[in-house]
């Protein structure tokens, strides 16, 4: 398994847009964390960017984890990049 770093952006109306999807988003993240597929994830303090670390078999699997998220599907996250990460320590 490899680790992938997510860098993404939120929509300008993030607070309003995320409201109906927030519980599904958080429930899913808790499930993925319990499965070892999400190491950490969260927004920047100003709610403009999201940062996360996923563990997946390959980049395609990591992208699936991101794109199946309710926030991605509802347009709360507007763009993202994913890069394989080598954890030094």
Question: What this model shows, in words?
Answer:
The protein is α+β, with helices and mostly antiparallel strands. The chain has one domain (2-85): Alpha-Beta Plaits, CATH 3.30.70. The chain has helices spanning 14-18, 22-34, 59-67, 70-73; strands at residues 2-10, 38-43, 49-56, 77-85. The protein has a four-stranded antiparallel β-sheet.
Helix content: 25-40%
- Could you list the spans in which at least 5 consecutive residues all have pLDDT below 50? none
- Please state roughly what percent of the residues sit in beta strands, choosing from under 5%, 5-15%, 15-25%, 25-35%, 35-45% or over 45%: 35-45%
Report the C-alpha radius of gyration, rounded.
Answer: 13 Å
CATH class value: Alpha Beta
- Please tally the helical runs, counting DSSP H or I stretches of 4 or more residues: 4
Q: Overall mean pLDDT score?
A: 97
Major sheet: arrangement of strands: 2-3-1-4
Overall CATH architecture: 2-Layer Sandwich
| General shape | globular
Major sheet size, sense and barrel closure: 4 strands, antiparallel
CATH superfamily: Dimeric alpha+beta barrel
Could you state the order of secondary-structure elements as H and E?
EHHEEHHE
Structural class: alpha+beta
Number of strands: 4
Distance from first to last alpha carbon:
16 Å
Overall tally of domains? 1
């Amino acid at each position: 398994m490899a680790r992938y770093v997510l860098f993404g952006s939120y929509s300008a109306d993030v607070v309003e847009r995320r409201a109906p999807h927030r519980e599904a988003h958080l429930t899913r993240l808790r499930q993925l964390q319990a499965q070892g597929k999400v190491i950490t994830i969260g927004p920047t303090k100003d709610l403009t960017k999201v940062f996360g670390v996923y563990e997946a078999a390959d980049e395609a699997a990591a992208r699936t984890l991101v794109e199946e998220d309710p926030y991605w599907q509802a347009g709360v996250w507007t763009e993202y990049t994913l890069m394989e990460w080598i954890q030094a320590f």
